Amino acid sequence: MKVYFTFNSRPDLQQQLIEHFPKVEFTFHSRIENEVLAEADVLVTYGEDLNDEHIKIAKNLKWIFVASAGIEKMPRKAIADRNIIVSNVRGIHKKPMAESIIAHILSLKRSLPYIYNNQQNKIWDKKGNPTELNGSTALIIGPGAIGAEIGRLLQAFEVYTIGLNRSGEDAPFMNETHRISDLAQQLPKADIVISILPSTEETTHMIKYEHFQLMRENAIFMNFGRGNLVETDVLIRALEEKLIYHAVLDVFEVEPLPYDNKLWELDNVTISPHCSSHSSRYLERSLEIFKPSLEKWLKGDTDIENQMDILRGY
Fold first, then answer.
1. For 167, how many CA atoms within 13 A lie in the half-sphere containing its CB?
2. Which of 42, 57, 64, 179 lies at a CB distance of 3.0 to 4.6 Å from 3, suitable for a disulfide?
3. Which residue among the candidates 82, 179, 216, 274 is catalytic per the annotation?
4. Is 276 helix (H, G, I), strand (E, B) or coil?
5. What parts of the sequence cross the membrane (predicted)?
6. In the chain, where does DSSP find H-type helix?
7. Other Cβ atoms within 10 Å of 207 Cβ, number
């Protein structure tokens, strides 16, 4: 059994794998080497380094483990045509992402950017107009593992949480849950709108200008799912017209965000460079999912955790 990591990890984590699976031949590279790829049975990747030609070369490949949540940049049709199993690390992002989102919310509510700016300019000024998080209403679009963790933390601040999912069935740590098709009806209720949706045909440009018109003028809009949820021009227009108070964006239609993009110039947006899930423990958590799945795989059991429908995108 040959397992090929197309990225380097900490030496101690590599050694743990080698010791735990003595019969497995592991290879760790910082980029794809076609000769190694051709013999790999299992591929571990972040997903952004694969193309159709790689799938052709990887003739022995039967399972791809993606150390990321998204697979939109992968050669999905080529993978599906080969019936290669794909699984990911869904769930490991919930702690760091939830902490990032709460940090951004509290920063805006308690006027921290204003305080930090005054400090840089040696200004003593108490007029930051801080508000309180408790008593707010948050609309969480996509209350899965990450959304549930956000809901749990928000409820600790006495925030009322509304979840939107495909089914409308109850979701953890949501005070109420509705179908995602009810978006327009729920938006006017929210002080904070948080999207953690994946990139699919249904979610592409799902949020339109009309949706921003439905939001409260004091609303905070947060996109931590995928950048194509909103057309960039629509988002810029909504922010320029002050339809909402502030936007916090961790994802964008084009990444890195181009230097000349108007979003850089607006004072009612926070730009986070797709880093909300980053953590010193990221790979540790990834391997906590990979190891038991590899143990199953070696026993001939393909019912591994977090299997994905590669064509649907999740």
1. 5
2. 42
3. 274
4. coil
5. none
6. 11-20, 34-37, 52-57, 76-81, 94-109, 112-120, 145-156, 183-186, 209-214, 232-240, 282-298
7. 23
Q: Is the pTM for the entire model greater than 0.70?
A: yes
Contact between 287 and 16 (Cβ < 8 Å): yes
Q: Tell me, yes or no, if 110 is annotated catalytic.
A: no
Q: Is 54 a catalytic residue?
A: no
Whether residue 90 contacts residue 307, with contact meaning beta carbons closer than 8 Å, is answered with no
- Tokens for 38, please give them: 């051709």
Catalytic residue among 76, 226, 246, 285: 226
Find out whether 225 and 195 touch, Cβ atoms under 8 Å: yes
Which three-class secondary structure state does DSSP give residue 50? Answer: coil
DSSP string, 120-182: HTT----------STT-EEEEES-SHHHHHHHHHHHHTT-EEEEEESS----TT-SEEEEGGG
Structural domains of the chain in order of their starting residue, each with its CATH number? 2-90+280-298 (3.40.50.720), 94-271 (3.40.50.720)
Verify whether residue 274 is a known catalytic residue: yes
Q: Per residue in 96-154, pLDDT tens?
A: 999 999 999 999 999 999 999 999 999 999 988 999 999 999 999 999 999 999 999 99
Catalytic residue, chosen from 210, 255, 265, 295, is 255
